From TrEMBL:
<protein>
    <recommendedName>
        <fullName>Serine carboxypeptidase-like 18</fullName>
    </recommendedName>
</protein>
<dbReference type="GO" id="GO:0019748">
    <property type="term" value="P:secondary metabolic process"/>
</dbReference>
<keyword id="KW-0732">Signal</keyword>
<dbReference type="GO" id="GO:0016752">
    <property type="term" value="F:sinapoyltransferase activity"/>
</dbReference>
<dbReference type="InterPro" id="IPR029058">
    <property type="entry name" value="AB_hydrolase_fold"/>
</dbReference>
<comment type="similarity">
    <text>Belongs to the peptidase S10 family.</text>
</comment>
<dbReference type="InterPro" id="IPR001563">
    <property type="entry name" value="Peptidase_S10"/>
</dbReference>
<dbReference type="GO" id="GO:0004185">
    <property type="term" value="F:serine-type carboxypeptidase activity"/>
</dbReference>
<feature type="signal peptide">
    <location>
        <begin position="1"/>
        <end position="30"/>
    </location>
</feature>
<dbReference type="Pfam" id="PF00450">
    <property type="entry name" value="Peptidase_S10"/>
</dbReference>
<keyword id="KW-0325">Glycoprotein</keyword>
<dbReference type="GO" id="GO:0006508">
    <property type="term" value="P:proteolysis"/>
</dbReference>
Amino acid sequence: MVKNVCHHLHLLLLLVFVGISQYWVRQVHADSHSPPIKFLPGFPGPLPFHLQTGYVGVDENEDVQLFYYFVKSERNPTEDPLIIWLSGGPGCSSFFALSYEIGPLYFKKVDYNGTLPTLVRNLNSWTKIANIIFLDSPVGTGFSYGRTSSASHSTDTKACALALQFLRKWFIGHPEFRSNPFYVGGDSYSGIIVPILTQMISNGNEAGLEQFVNLKGYLLGNPKTFPADQDFVIPFAHGMGIISDELYESLKQSCRSGYEKQDTDSLECSRCLDAFDQLRSGLFYEQVLENICDEYPPELRRSLSDKKGVFMHGSAERTNIKSSSSVLKCRFAGYRLCRYWFNNDNVRKALRVRKGTTGEWERCRDALPYEYDVSDSRVYHANLSRKGYKSLIYSGDHDMIVPFQSTQSWIRDLNYSIVDEWRPWIVQGQYAGYTRAYSNKMTFATVKGAGHTAPEYKPAECYAMFERWISDKPL
């Protein structure tokens, strides 16, 4: 009798579990497999590519709702690589990568006249040869949101864990992409996030506890990597002729413990750092050759003592938001176009954004409740190298936020032998930068004339770089 009761109870629990599981799968499928978007306000005619947006609930009770944009490859989506792209900040929306860097759209850079900004095609979009998920992460970024105050808090490791949950659930709604070669990509502060997430995916594959992800490697642009990143800003400035030989030597001598004011009691070091800050105050840090806006706010002209906020550069879009006088004077002013566009009700409706879940859209949200709990991602690079994953690390060589010298430094720390010595890589008969390849399947490349988000400045060159690397060709 007891045996029969237990048997029936077990069967009942199994049926309940199966029913819940099927319901959960249906919900994930419904949330993450919405119909493609055919039209977008501001773009003339139907979209010439497949765009899908949606939310995926993660964390306990799905209290974190992560928003994403998915663009299918225009070549062969069933076989082409699949990339999840995470923009930096932390707190910068991945739509910036979609519409200013590697995605299929650009904003037409014309004077803002009060009407909706116009969208045009990016002829050098990486989605010509790859499927890309542009994820708004961590929670609070872009249109991603938390249902509770605790769910709205994040850390480096939590953001990675939730991105992994997102990915597992996304594949439930998109099972046709499970066998595609998979890569994790990002830039700027994602130099911390991408290696951690890549290792989490690899660990899950090895444990066999989750569905298999066909992980092949990762790619990073101008990546924040370790605490000494900022120590290379001054050598970069000296090489660019921003500071004199004398000031450079004085900084080296007086700031022996590093170029951080809080790391030294030396009055001479503080004096030299103040002189350096003044000399670079009129520069656009993302690309030092670019013009700076007249209203470029002082809080963006960070001193070296600001280790975290230097990677956040979106708050200034709130400055003179209705002004149109300087849209074409500098690149930074052009960033406001996406803000005008996103805060239009018809745009949000077209993108299927849930009403009332987020307030005014910001390209980079600099007031996130976020804890930095990983300061150095080099150990993750080393682990991934040992496992044989390929990687592409590229640097715009005119970036003063994460200088290319910093990236070269931590790559040297990995201590892998060189298999393709330093040489130029060429696009359309011209030097596009310099590259070196290592025995750990890591390729490093500079992008000549590019800034902090290299594809934004050199789209054709970066597309060529990506196409060669993803196809296992030398740059």
